[in-house]
Amino acid sequence: GSSPMSLWVCVILCVSHTTSLPITCQLNGNLVKRSHELLRSMGGPFPRKCIKDNVMVPFPAVAFRSDGTDVLTMLINETFSSITSLFGDRDLPAEWEPKALEDFQSEVYRLSDDLGHCAKSHFLERAKLVETYFDKLDTTLQEKNYSFCAWEIVRKELERTLRFIVEHSADFLWP
Fold this sequence. Notes:
By secondary structure, the chain is mostly helical. The chain has a single domain (4-174), classed as Growth Hormone, Chain: A (Up-down Bundle), CATH 1.20.1250.10. Helix content is 58%, strand content 2%. It contains six helices and two strands. It has helices at 4-15, 29-41, 71-87, 98-115, 124-143, 148-168, and strands at 27-28, 173-174. A two-stranded parallel ribbon has the order 1-2. Helix 3 (71-87) runs antiparallel to helix 4 (98-115) and helix 3 runs parallel beside helix 5 (124-143). Residues 1-20 form the signal peptide. InterPro entries: 4_helix_cytokine-like_core, Interferon_alpha/beta/delta. It is found in: Secreted. Keywords: Antiviral defense, Cytokine, Disulfide bond, Secreted, Signal.
């Protein structure tokens, strides 16, 4: 397989030529950045005790290539909707900072709700790639019995996903 670095280089190249969307489909960049920070801060660095359980879930970079439509915004919406579903009503690690976790879930829900009002045409094929990515994260949780380390793997992967959105989707985020 390809290395995570080459994947991110591809992601950067695929998304670096994006176009602006109508203001109604722009995301609140501060909320996206805050969600990213909350996710990072609620658990600290990836725990050493989880390294043996770690799995890589490749981010679907090809889904985020721009074609001059609202596709990227819709996929970011799919990302936030999927995060909301992934966390759902499950028992989450007690080791995570409760206030940061609560704020993270609240902001992700708000972002998903805000974006849900945009038109969803031209994105179903790419949305399937994003859905598959989140299915793999969910499978990781199930296979590892929703253990602390399983949740840490999910948190690590989501942190990379949100970092990507923050760093490479500036045209779609209002300040």
